[in-house]
Amino acid sequence: MKLGLILAVISPTLSGILIRGEKGTAKSTAVRALAEILPEQELVTGCPFRLAPSERGSLCETCPREGCRKAFEYHRGHVPVVELPVGATEDRVAGTMDLERALREGIRAFEPGLLAAAHRGILYVDEVNLLDDHVVDLLLDSAAMGVNTVEREGVSLAHPARFSLVGTMNPEEGELRPQLLDRFGLCVTVEGSKDPHERVEIMERRAAFEASPEAFAAKWGEAARDIAQRIREAIRLFPTVETERRLLFDIAHTSLELGVDGHRGDLMMLRAAKALAAWHGRDQVTAGDVQEAASFVLPHRMRRQPLQDIAREVKLPALTGVGR
To answer: Catalytic residue at 301?
Structure first.
């Protein structure tokens, strides 16, 4: 679970991760803790759409904040983790138009929603399988196009909405719609430890945190900073990572052997393998990276019989090296 979250940060093109598991396995805790180790990015100061300096332009004419239209300033801020409540309304997610101001002043005044706040960041949905269908449709449209479009009474506005979607769910409460499930680049299944020693350590750590959150955070602060630095280095390395053509054939062979539909699985496996190589400080993908990437990318994409659960482990075919 932790490695999957890190890979989603290293490569936003993985489109996020779905974390499935029984209740009480720290799924939500892990995602919320991720915010402490995320890297920084450059932003237009005061921009409600979280635009990068290179993205400012047409949106500025409809921005509700007039101050930043006159003089652009930039600053560095951490990648955000924006939580989308299960009961959120469509206006809360997508944003809403100020029709009164539009009619009175002829200005397309827009109040940004959660999709704007999550641009270039992480959108987190706890109990993602319980989302209303109309919100799921919004997420699917934004994930596919990288743009959120709001239309009210003949007035429309579009803004960038590229984000990594992180969802947690308990399969006992129902499964996801296939269209949304396929949008998650990675998928992992977690369960409680069967080791009594690990269970005792979990209790001891939780008790230590409750006794003194500050002391607990200080104790693990150096380890968290080390992980954050390693993530920053992997992000810088990721664009330079190369993959030999023979490994591309191995990826294709694996998908075909496991009956994976479409080509998204192949692309996600390639991106995940490159992210793994960058995480380990390498600029070349190895066969081991491909095999490990398959265990993150393919379980929720394999064809299943009715009532069959998503596989916890992928039984990989032998990598044949067809392209050698």
So the answer is: no
